[in-house]
Amino acid sequence: MPGSYKCARCKQKVEIDINVRCPFCGHRILFKERGAAIKELKAR
């Protein structure tokens, strides 16, 4: 599951593949980064 994540503690960008741990601080809680696209929805 490769992807771009952000560490919850040190806020660094982290690329993970097998190890789910921040290489900078060792924290194990990572957030998946969102895309930059803005969605507009029409209200009913």
From TrEMBL:
Name what cofactor the protein needs. Answer: Zn(2+)
Which residues lie in coiled coils? none
Q: Which residues bind Zn(2+)?
A: 10, 22, 25
**What keywords sit in the KW lines?**
Cytoplasm, DNA-directed RNA polymerase, Metal-binding, Nucleotidyltransferase, Transcription, Transferase, Zinc
Q: Does this UniProt record's set of keywords contain Nucleotidyltransferase? A: yes
Reactions mediated catalytically:
RNA(n) + a ribonucleoside 5'-triphosphate = RNA(n+1) + diphosphate
How, per the record, is the cofactor bound?
Answer: Binds 1 zinc ion.
- State its Enzyme Commission number(s): 2.7.7.6
* Molecular function as annotated in GO: DNA binding; DNA-directed RNA polymerase activity; zinc ion binding
Spell out the GO cellular component terms annotated for this protein, sorted alphabetically and separated by semicolons. Answer: cytoplasm; DNA-directed RNA polymerase complex
Query: What's an example GO BP annotation here?
Result: DNA-templated transcription
Where does this protein chiefly localize? cytoplasm
UniProt cross-references to SUPFAM superfamilies, sorted A to Z: RNA polymerase subunits (SSF63393)
Where it sits in the cell: the answer is: Cytoplasm
Family statement: Belongs to the archaeal Rpo12/eukaryotic RPC10 RNA polymerase subunit family.
Quaternary data: Part of the RNA polymerase complex.
Q: What does this protein do?
A: DNA-dependent RNA polymerase (RNAP) catalyzes the transcription of DNA into RNA using the four ribonucleoside triphosphates as substrates.
HAMAP family in the cross-refs: RNApol_arch_Rpo12
This chain's protein is named DNA-directed RNA polymerase subunit Rpo12
Q: Which gene encodes it?
A: rpo12
